[in-house]
Specification:
Strand order of the largest sheet: 1-2
Distance between the termini: 25 Å
Helix content: 40-55%
Number of strands: 2
Structural class: mainly alpha
GO molecular function: calcium ion binding
Subcellular location: Cytoplasm; Endomembrane system
Radius of gyration: 17 Å
Protein name: EF-hand domain-containing protein
Shape: globular
Keywords: Calcium, Cytoplasm, Membrane, Metal-binding, Repeat
Bound molecules: calcium ion
CATH topology of one domain: Recoverin, domain 1
Main location: cytoplasm
Strand content: under 5%
Length: 189
């Protein structure tokens, strides 16, 4: 179904809310972060990811990246994160962290440009050298990519691919955008 240009590494959304959510070990953690409204906002997410050690000894995620993480999985378009969305984010983040660590062999907290390209390819994206170059220019610091930038890159790449795929109804790798639609897509990722 998907042509090779799309990322293959992410599946669809889990369906309905399974029963016994309260029994989920993650639930207590989720509700502590979410607070009164039962929803995680971008600043709550930023605090939680920093405290949970998800970013480890790495730099904390920027508020912008946290906003993007929420948007990426915000199926009900609430702008905040419910429990199921949060669970999905944890899975996605763990996957990215595993990928990152497998390339950061010396545990320096950053990967080299070449390794970023390999990581992107490993995740199933089929990009030209030119596209890889754009990514490098945007996310590298002295030709190295720290973890928070890596995640920021992964979030954006996935969100843009999702948006593109939605408009590429014939799944041929081509889509047409109206100007306003294009602006909406690019300004929201
Ligand atoms: Ca909240
Ligand atoms: Ca939501």
């Amino acid at each position: 179904m998907a042509y090779p240009g799309y990322g293959a590494g992410y599946g669809g959304a889990p369906g309905g809310v399974p029963g016994g959510v309260q029994q989920d070990p993650l639930y207590g953690y989720f509700s502590a972060i979410a607070g009164q409204d039962g929803q995680i906002s971008p600043d709550e997410l930023q605090r939680c990811l920093t405290q949970s050690g998800m970013s480890g000894s790495y730099q904390p995620f920027s508020l912008d990246t946290c906003r993007l993480m929420i948007n990426m999985l915000d199926r009900d378009m609430s702008g905040t994160m419910g429990f199921q969305e949060f669970k999905e984010l944890c899975q996605v983040l763990n996957g990215w962290k595993t990928t990152f660590m497998s390339f950061d062999r010396d545990r320096s907290g950053a990967v080299e440009g070449q390794e970023l390209q390999q990581a992107i390819t490993t995740m199933g994206y089929n990009l030209s050298p030119q596209a890889m170059n754009c990514i490098m220019k945007r996310y590298s610091v002295n030709n190295r990519i720290p973890f928070d930038e890596f995640v920021s890159c992964c979030v954006r790449l996935r969100a843009l691919t999702d948006q593109f795929r939605r408009r590429d109804t014939s799944q041929t790798g081509n889509a047409s955008f109206q100007y306003d639609d294009f602006i909406q897509v690019t300004m929201s990722v």
